[in-house]
Amino acid sequence: MVAADERPHAVCLPLPAQGHVTPMMKLAKVLHCKGFHVTFVNTEYNHRRLIRSRGPGAVAGLTGFRFATIPDGLPPSDADATQDPASLCYSTMTTCLPHFRNLLVDLNRTPGLPPVTCVVADNVMSFGIDAAKELGVPCALFWTASACGYMGYRHFRFFLDEGLSPLKDEEQLTNGFLDTPVARPPARGMSKHMRFRDFPTFIWTTDRGDILLNFVMHEVERTDRADAVILNTFDELEQPALDAMRAILPPVYTIGPLGNLAEQVFTDAAPVGTIRSSLWREDHACLAWLDGREPQSVVFVNYGSITTMSNDELVEFAWGLANCGHDFLWIVRPDLVKGDAAVLPPEFLEATEGRGLLARWCEQEAVLRHEAVGVFLTHCGWNSTMESISAGVPMLCWPFFAEQQTNSRYSCAEWGVGMEVGGNVRREAVEGRIREAMGGEKGKEMKRRAAEWKELGARATQPGGRSLVNLENLLKEVLLPGKKSC
Hints:
Elements: E1 9-13, H1 18-33, E2 37-43, H2 44-54, E3 65-70, H3 85-109, E4 118-122, H4 127-135, E5 139-143, H5 147-154, H6 156-161, H7 211-220, E6 228-231, H8 239-246, E7 252-254, H9 258-265, H10 285-291, E8 298-302, H11 311-324, E9 327-331, H12 346-351, E10 356-359, H13 364-368, E11 373-378, H14 382-391, E12 395-397, H15 404-414, E13 418-420, H16 427-439, H17 441-461, H18 466-479
Parallel strand pairs: 1-2, 1-4, 2-3, 4-5, 5-6, 6-7, 8-9, 8-11, 9-10, 11-12, 12-13
């Protein structure tokens, strides 16, 4: 046994949005079970949300696992919603470094804590590299999205140089320009099926000064300063994109599917299993409701933690679900509708009584693994995509922004597990896609492919599997003490 004050000490720093906090928390718990003392850094805003969602015990930590906070630089707020992405990203990039640097210094001065030996920062919180180098410890960046998404962002400079972006006017968003093919070799490491619309949405702007465009270019182009790059994926799924990343970056360690990997390292019964990261209160009735349904009979609908829509789009989805004839579990976040509360027609609730359940939030990974779920209508965020692949559940894809478009294209054109809903939501299209996915020939093929990918993902994280071996190599080669920052 290693004395508490001699354990390696990892400081984990996620971007303060649910889709980034969730995988970083899984990785932090894996590190803790591998013998690390862990300090998990939330922003003060998310710290308060976590307490409201799960109570004070949610941030109490346990022996060798503690929480810390830094300010995000935005005006004080207690809203129960994800902050505006552009404002949040700009603020973290420009204000958080000194606060994080001071936190690392304070941790090293805290009696009873082992000194900080490494930093694991979100790839889009790359100021973590600067703070770690000042401290003289290694910094691994965790790219929490897909490898194909990363390479999509790395092509932004090419699109700017070629004059494809910024767009000349907003008409190019609707006149077919986005369907322009972008084939290899320009799209290095990417699918041969890529169109301009399949690259991350920030490149579609008409403004060269767009905050998110410049933020993400700044962050991904600093990745090569890290000591290592970690991804929640497995090699068989994204080999060409990973090959392209490895050609331009420090050592790249694929450790996914992260949900499967975590299960190999610890169980929910372990002390660390009690630490949760959901910023919304989960409705545990969802799993009990699914228990009463037939296998593969339920359509699960969840648009993630950031996606917003108009109430008209919400109503079109509602009637598509009502008319498809299948049972459904639909997650409707409090902030799902832009600038307003979600309002569903009373007629919809009457028409679906007894075969639909509406919830505000859920334990998505557990829901997807439930045998009752037959298809997942998703925004194609990477956590959702990986959890769906790991569970062998095919997807109906309605991407919203960022690299979700890229994930959707790969799910449909490369991996064979998805089908596009279409950007202009119409109830007839939603109904038709659900019927085809649940019972048509295309749906059967999607289920077959999903089962194959599920098996490959499981193998990667089993003893001797590449992802589990990569985790051990990451620890030995980068994160354990004695590895000096370059």
